[in-house]
Amino acid sequence: MAKDKKLVESITSMQEDFAQWYTDVVKKAELIDYSSVKGCMIIKPAGYALWENIQNELDRRFKETGVQNVYMPMFIPEGLLNKEKDHVEGFAPEVAWVTHGGQSKLQERLCVRPTSETLFCDFYKNDVQSYRDLPKVYNQWCSVVRWEKETRPFLRSREFLWQEGHTAHATAQEAQERTEQMLNVYATFCEEVLAIPVIRGQKTEKEKFAGAEATYTIEALMHDGKALQSGTSHNFGDGFAKAFDIQYTDPNNQLQYVHQTSWGLSTRIIGAIIMVHGDDSGLVLPPAIAPTQVMVIPIQQQKEGVLKKANELYQALQQQFRVKVDDSVKSPGWKFSEQEMRGIPLRIEIGPKDIEKGQCVIVRRDTREKYQTAIEQVPQKVEELLKTVQSEMFARAKAHRDSHITDARDYEQFQAALEEKPGFIRAMWCGEQACEDKIKEDTTATSRCMPFEQEQISDVCVCCKKPAKKLVFWGKAY
Question: Which of 202, 238, 275, 390 is most buried when burial is the number of CB atoms within 10 A of its CB?
Answer without folding.
Answer: 275
